[in-house]
Amino acid sequence: MPLPKIDPTSTKAWKALQTHFNEMREVDVRDLFAENPARATDFSISWNDFFVDISKNRITPKTRELLLQLADEVALKSAIEAQFQGEKINETEDRAVLHTALRDFSNMKPEVAEGLQKMKAFSEAIHNKTYKGYTGKPIDTVVNIGIGGSHLGPEMVCTALQDYNKGINVHFISNIDGDAVARTLQQVDPETTLFIVVSKTFTTQETLTNAHTVKDWFVDRTNKTAVAQHFIAVSTNPEEVAAFGILAQNTFAMWDWVGGRFSLWSAVGLSICCAIGYTNFETMLKGAHGMDQHFATAPFSENIPVALAMLSIWYNNFYGFETEAIIPYSEALNKLVPYLQQAVMESNGKQIDRNGNLVDYQTGTIVWGATGTNAQHAFFQLLHQGTKRIPTDFICVSQSNHGLQEHHDILVANCLAQSEALLEGKPAKSGEPYRTFKGNKPTTTILIEKLTPKNLGSLIALYEHKTFVQGVVWNMYSYDQWGVELGKSVAKTILQAIREKDESVLQNKSTRAIFKKVKK
Ligand code: F6P
């Protein structure tokens, strides 16, 4: 069953939301709190270790009702079922979308279970020091070589769960800029380092160029046969892996039904597994599966990914707010925003709908942000007093892992203070208009009991599903990424011009002019 192909603007709910928006345009959320003393409870959802407060948003019970009606009219329920059942919902690539199957232990595909066993055995051999480098020393460092989905998820998780690290140094080489590879290699010892080349296709120029440079560096310092112990691959393309010189037993499989930006749950997460250990990795998968079940079974009115996605549709398509900020009050989550930027914007940054038509409504919200409190001292001025309106997610963790209570108290106080200040504002004082805070700025707070592998898994899955719901409503194919192809092919032509010192292949006059300056 393919995804339904419903133009959201043709639904009754969409039209009703347009009318409702005219009633809501001037509504002040402070008044809604005054009118309804139970608003904080009415507009919050508790689930496991999560408490999600959406009460500071520009919504009323009627808004919620109409947004849920929209979800029904675009057949969200059947879209969710189609995804979980492994239908080929990624039609432009003729693929199923089953990252959720990587974390479903009650119904696991044999090849997934086998892959996990291989990851378990491998990471345990590193931790119990039976897997050794070519001189017999145990491995103490892992370098992940990959880009996009083969980098951002693993780096984000390794950073977030550093408190669970088993004493393994983890580095990431992603950018083609030689600084990335050179600076990393200065920090590692070839005798004790494992290089994991992660590329679903094993054709990505940045990754392959970096991997070859690393291999040459390694062979220069060791010998050719040592490559077998120190180079590992994760890919769907065993032929290219073998051509690179990595042994079949050191190759971890992945599958075309796992999209790159949703692949950290597969062997793409091998660096995570090496860093935090298999048990923690499995716990993270189970945390994500918990959110999958919540998403698949909870009524939409109590469904966290659905609630957040529909809120985002409300702001994007009716208020015309173009961006969303995500502010984790957790230094451990300092890589979450770049990870989500790929997950969200590579998925929904599109303008052709599932009927092949150009859409006449806004899609793909722009996601940005940074950790609190740093962000407060950088761009919060604009959130508080600027002319742009930016719905913001505050992610707050109740209990710290570090135990520095004074720090944590200040951190949490700041998180709560910011969402309150953005809503409540501060009236003008005569003669000092610049001290005015208009308030009524929409925020959502996601409070998580503790940043554990389980809760991190749930949090990531939450945003994955939010992204999918938005794509369903916008009538998009969220799981392809054709938009990254053009730049790659243009770069090929320019690289040819650079290598052959021949500008005649360059068509664009501006490019040609810049090219001449580069060559000087
Ligand atoms: O940027 C495009 C993209 O295809 C991403 O979707 C993907 O995560 C990344 O490149 C890396 O691809 P691969 O894992 O095949 O090297």
TrEMBL record:
<dbReference type="GO" id="GO:0004347">
    <property type="term" value="F:glucose-6-phosphate isomerase activity"/>
</dbReference>
<keyword id="KW-0324">Glycolysis</keyword>
<dbReference type="GO" id="GO:0005829">
    <property type="term" value="C:cytosol"/>
</dbReference>
<dbReference type="GO" id="GO:0051156">
    <property type="term" value="P:glucose 6-phosphate metabolic process"/>
</dbReference>
<feature type="active site">
    <location>
        <position position="488"/>
    </location>
</feature>
<dbReference type="InterPro" id="IPR035482">
    <property type="entry name" value="SIS_PGI_2"/>
</dbReference>
<keyword id="KW-0963">Cytoplasm</keyword>
<feature type="active site">
    <location>
        <position position="377"/>
    </location>
</feature>
<dbReference type="Pfam" id="PF00342">
    <property type="entry name" value="PGI"/>
</dbReference>
<dbReference type="GO" id="GO:0006096">
    <property type="term" value="P:glycolytic process"/>
</dbReference>
<dbReference type="InterPro" id="IPR023096">
    <property type="entry name" value="G6P_Isomerase_C"/>
</dbReference>
<comment type="pathway">
    <text>Carbohydrate degradation; glycolysis; D-glyceraldehyde 3-phosphate and glycerone phosphate from D-glucose: step 2/4.</text>
</comment>
<dbReference type="GO" id="GO:0097367">
    <property type="term" value="F:carbohydrate derivative binding"/>
</dbReference>
<dbReference type="InterPro" id="IPR035476">
    <property type="entry name" value="SIS_PGI_1"/>
</dbReference>
<keyword id="KW-0312">Gluconeogenesis</keyword>
<protein>
    <recommendedName>
        <fullName>Glucose-6-phosphate isomerase</fullName>
        <ecNumber>5.3.1.9</ecNumber>
    </recommendedName>
</protein>
<dbReference type="GO" id="GO:0048029">
    <property type="term" value="F:monosaccharide binding"/>
</dbReference>
<comment type="pathway">
    <text>Carbohydrate biosynthesis; gluconeogenesis.</text>
</comment>
<feature type="active site" description="Proton donor">
    <location>
        <position position="346"/>
    </location>
</feature>
<dbReference type="InterPro" id="IPR001672">
    <property type="entry name" value="G6P_Isomerase"/>
</dbReference>
<keyword id="KW-0413">Isomerase</keyword>
<comment type="function">
    <text>Catalyzes the reversible isomerization of glucose-6-phosphate to fructose-6-phosphate.</text>
</comment>
<dbReference type="InterPro" id="IPR046348">
    <property type="entry name" value="SIS_dom_sf"/>
</dbReference>
<dbReference type="InterPro" id="IPR018189">
    <property type="entry name" value="Phosphoglucose_isomerase_CS"/>
</dbReference>
<comment type="similarity">
    <text>Belongs to the GPI family.</text>
</comment>
<dbReference type="GO" id="GO:0006094">
    <property type="term" value="P:gluconeogenesis"/>
</dbReference>
